[in-house]
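[Automated response] Your request has been received and processed.

Submitted sequence:
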Amino acid sequence: QVQLVESGGGLVQPGGSLRLSCAASGTFFSINAMGWYRQAPGNQRDMVARITSGGSISYADSVKGRFTISRDNAKNTVYLQMNSLKPEDTASYYCNADVNTISLRRDYWGQGTQVTVSS
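Generated structure:
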């Protein structure tokens, strides 16, 4: 079984910064891509940023230039540095990992961490 544990959410004023972390633990061979998704009430869950095991990165247009994704493969951890936050960034943020286990390859999700941008 694989667990993804997120941390770093909270309340921040517009223009502020937050850093999210997500650590993978459990029994697995390797992790392919890792990413962050977000979901606001009444909306679908959308990709925010994604990084492959080789370091290729993609961002949603709405966060380009403000958010930075990175990963530490040795720690099986992915980070999301969020700068210049806007009220429209308010959402639950979910970590995702594409994991190779003993028997299969599948996606895993974290429990979500709330980010609220408000004055």
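Summary generated for your ticket: The radius of gyration is 14 Å. The chain has no helices and eleven strands.
If you did not submit this request, please reply to this message.
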